[in-house]
Design brief:
The protein is an alpha/beta fold and about 475 residues long. It is built from 22 helices and 15 strands. The strands form four sheets. Strands 5-2-1-6-7-8 form a six-stranded parallel sheet. It has a four-stranded mixed sheet with strand order 4-3-11-10.
């Protein structure tokens, strides 16, 4: 059987994008989009992948000439959607450690326009032990700072040779954080003040928001898929059809002119403020997950797919999203509802098995960030408490207190201080436990018993769960 790179025609294009990271997400998100832009002639350029850490192996990529298949499967417009694309937008792959000279040469590339990265949240960090003399420096900010300095020197500080820098790490305000780390390390390395000004003002460090589930190599299906495709591909990457890339800049139109991925009919948004889009994602996608999965698990379900097939839990999910979470998202109603519908379709995706217990990890921190703000905002704006979101807090308490379902134990994974509180207090009567828990300002950031009616509401929900069971309590709410 022929290889994927023999089955696809790869055009030679200038390397315009340097990509730190070779993982599934960037290959199925950024490189996929650039491939479409090339095909539609709205952008002409290719990606050079940089291996950013000593671990890993680029041999599989190089053996296929950096050509691979992206297979997207899920629901779109209420129908099953399957899309296969052979991505040819990656020009090559370079190991920054084994081929440092090849890597460093990209600093002098006149075609270079964009840098993207996904080095994990822990990758954007300032480390004062990192050294300029290392080839390459240890940290991602160190590597980037040195590359930019060498570019600055090669082009004699030319203001037009600055780059668009798009971190895809999940840190909030990731562009600001990356710039801050780079400035700190440049100062620590005693690089010239003029370079620091050039790095800050001639390059565009953008905050970004990315969203697409990439499930990786389909081990169990690979042989069947290759027969269907008619070629062998060791780098197939699977994922969902939905994608969102919000790029924040003081000059969105300037970014769009230089990197016009918003012209491909894809979900790319250039804006001067991504805050409302982050709120939309955190509240509607993440918030709905957090508000529903613990109740669903305690009601006897195991996956998100099971939850969406269950009449009561699906009704709970849709009602909590549309009637309690969506009204507090600071975007036009039609945009919010369109996104909400896409979330429902993502939850229904029959090709992804998303275990509820996996989503339940660290639920306290998730609830505090994703759900509690909507409860508080609803109370402040309306003077009343949202019925379903307060119930989700009671379900959280139940899940953390019981530790078993149908006689089968499960492990609560969370911060030690949260687990210690439940271990010490979970056997107290409900009317004692709830005010004790809600009053813990060291955990919540404030004393929640000051919210009129909240303590009594949570106690009432817990009594209902104790009397009717989780499923009966959910059914009674709807």
């Amino acid at each position: 059987m022929k290889r994927v790179n023999e089955a696809a025609k790869k055009c030679k294009r200038p390397v315009t994008v340097l990509q730190y990271g070779e993982g599934n997400f960037l290959r199925g998100f950024v490189d996929y989009m650039i491939d479409i832009a090339n095909e539609q002639n709205v952008y002409i350029g290719s990606v050079q992948i940089i291996k950013n850490i000593p671990q890993g192996d680029l041999a599989p990529l190089k053996s296929q000439d950096c050509v691979y298949t992206v297979l997207l499967r899920g629901k779109r417009n209420n129908e099953i959607h399957v899309e296969k694309r052979v991505v040819t937008s990656v020009a090559g792959a370079t190991d920054a450690y084994e081929d440092y000279d090849e890597y460093a040469a990209f600093a002098k590339n006149t075609d270079l326009q964009v840098i993207v990265s996904n080095t994990t949240e822990a990758g954007i960090v300032y480390d004062d032990t990192d050294l300029y003399e290392l080839t390459p420096p240890n940290t991602y900010p160190g590597k980037l700072t040195k590359l930019l300095h060498e570019r600055y020197e090669h082009f004699n500080g030319d203001s037009t040779k600055g780059l668009i820098i798009l971190p895809c790490e999940l840190n909030e305000n990731n562009g600001d954080l990356l710039l801050d780390c780079c400035l700190k390390i440049a100062e620590h390395w005693k690089l010239p003040p003029d370079f620091l000004d050039w790095m800050k003002h001639c390059n565009m460090f953008c905050n970004t928001l990315v969203d697409r589930i990439m499930t990786g190599y389909p081990t169990d299906e690979a042989e069947t898929l290759e027969k269907e495709f008619g070629y062998k591909d060791d780098l197939i990457v699977t994922g969902e059809p939905f994608a969102l890339w919000v790029i924040e800049s003081k000059s969105p139109s300037r970014i769009s002119r230089r990197f016009p991925l918003d012209k491909i009919g894809f979900y790319v948004i250039y804006t001067n403020d991504l805050t409302p889009y982050r709120e939309r994602k955190v509240r509607l996608l993440n918030g709905t997950h957090t508000a529903s999965v613990l109740a669903a698990y305690m009601a006897g379900l195991d996956t998100v797919g099971d939850m969406m097939k269950d009449t009561d839990m699906r009704a709970f999910v849709e009602k909590v999203m549309y009637t309690e979470l969506a009204p507090m998202v600071p975007l036009p109603e039609d945009e919010v509802n369109t996104f909400a519908r896409s979330v429902i379709e993502r939850f229904e995706n029959p090709f992804i098995r998303h275990n509820l217990l996996s989503i339940a990890l660290n639920s306290f921190a998730k609830f505090k960030v994703r759900v509690l703000p909507t409860i508080l905002e609803t109370y402040e704006k309306t003077g009343s408490l949202p019925k379903l979101l307060t119930f989700s807090l009671a379900a959280f308490i139940r899940f953390y207190s019981v530790g078993e379902r149908d006689g089968i134990p499960y492990t609560v994974m969370d911060d030690d201080s949260v687990k210690a509180f439940f271990n010490e207090s979970k056997d107290k009567p409900v009317d004692v436990f709830v005010p004790l828990f809600l009053s813990r300002a060291d955990l919540w950031g404030r004393d929640l018993t000051t919210i009129s009616g909240l303590t009594e509401t949570i106690i009432s929900h817990l009594y209902r769960i104790n009397d009717a069971g989780m499923r009966g309590a959910v059914h009674g709410l709807l």
